[in-house]
Amino acid sequence: MAALPEACEARSVPSTQLRGGIPLFGMDADTALDVVTGRLGLGCPPERNLATFLTTSIEPEAQRLYRTYLNHNLVDREQYPAIDAMLRECVGIIGSLWHGEPHRVAGSATTGSSEAALLAGASLLRNWQERGATRRPNLVMGAGAHACWAKFCRHWDVEARVAPARGDSPSLDPDEVEELCDGGTIGVVGILGSTLDGRYEPIAAIADALDRLQERTGLDIPMHVDAASGGFLAPFLDPDLAWDFRIPRVVSINASGHKSGMVPPGLGWVLWRGEGDRNQGLGVRVNYLGGDDAHHELTFSRSAAPVVLQYYNFVRYGFAGFHAVHARSRGLARRLAERMRATGRLRLLGDGGELPVVAVTARPPVALRELAAHLAERGWAVPVYTLPPHLEHVEVMRVVVRSDLTPASVEELATTVEEFVAGAR
Ligand SMILES: *Cc1c(COP(=O)(O)O)cnc(C)c1O
């Protein structure tokens, strides 16, 4: 730890004199700790935070590992070759979970699925440009696509060609895919696990539609799967569902290590089927860290700890452990969904059977925003939002059943919802 030089001893009483917007003299570490935690508090306790998909707790051994590697720079491959080897091994493991060939897949650890999506999109765009582009490029996706795809399209100047939502689902309809694609289409994004309702998009059926398009027109359009939430869940719970590299048209996949990969915030993965699918132009050579390596990420320096924890989780839980943890979440989500449905006033958009997410709409006199406020008074954080364009009249409440939610807290939540619904008039 950096200690202060003696000539500049910190005070135990914070100084009120400012310079450059910060206190002129520092304070001792204990006092600073109190000042900061006093300001922040801890927020919603994890077992009551039903809003986030992200990991909210890790076991003590993982915390120790995290602290140990927090100050190791992931990008410093020369200094920490073992960490780099571990990262490569993770890419191979994830590649096999997604039915790629472990020694063929190419990929990166990223800060999250958003950076992963930007890289996957950039690769699709470059590959398309190299096929002789003459028009404005577009990327086809469903109405439920995450904001990271809008970011990619905006910053890379690609048209976001969003399929209009049908019925009450934001899911990409395979029948619309053929109509939306043309010679400017750099790729189609399918989502394995919608952020909005927890449903899987029909990845195989979308690929079939693209096969038909190719037979008819000769256009060969690649697919990317955004498996931010489902990438570390479907391999364990839905082994027979082909959504991954088993589908020849899928060239790349992203997932968030910090969602169902059970790593604390700060980790995503992007994998390509093979080095030939990842556009060579993504790599930038860097020689001043000692090696002469191509870097494929958008960011540079960051902590190695999340990658170390991803590997820890693989060896700690094993295949059976990942299955057990996620199966429990899915089971809890399904039971919660069933109890909400049984109230007769809540309708299920997502029943927990795919991502462990329960998404409901309400019939009068039940108002979801009042229900969420009622839950908030009891300390539960549960979001209510409207669906994207064409479905903006549909208001949804969503509960994410994460691995650290206990059966008892889900039970308590269900009872609270039932009582509120029964009392609504
Ligand atoms: C969460 C999410 C993202 C963004 O992932 P981050 O890891 O938070 O950057 C992208 N797509 C989907 C489908 C998501 O659920």
UniProtKB/TrEMBL annotation:
What EC designation does it have?
4.1.1.15
Molecular-function GO terms, alphabetical: glutamate decarboxylase activity
Q: What is this protein called?
A: Glutamate decarboxylase
Q: Which organism is it from?
A: Saccharopolyspora ipomoeae
- Gene3D superfamilies, alphabetically? 3.90.1150.160, Type I PLP-dependent aspartate aminotransferase-like (Major domain)
Query: What broad class of enzyme is this?
Result: lyase
Q: Which UniProt keywords apply?
A: Decarboxylase, Lyase, Pyridoxal phosphate
Q: Which family does it belong to?
A: Belongs to the group II decarboxylase family.
Catalytic reaction(s) noted: L-glutamate + H(+) = 4-aminobutanoate + CO2
InterPro entries referenced in this protein's UniProt entry, alphabetically? Glutamate_decarboxylase, PyrdxlP-dep_de-COase, PyrdxlP-dep_Trfase, PyrdxlP-dep_Trfase_major
For activity, the cofactor(s) needed are: pyridoxal 5'-phosphate
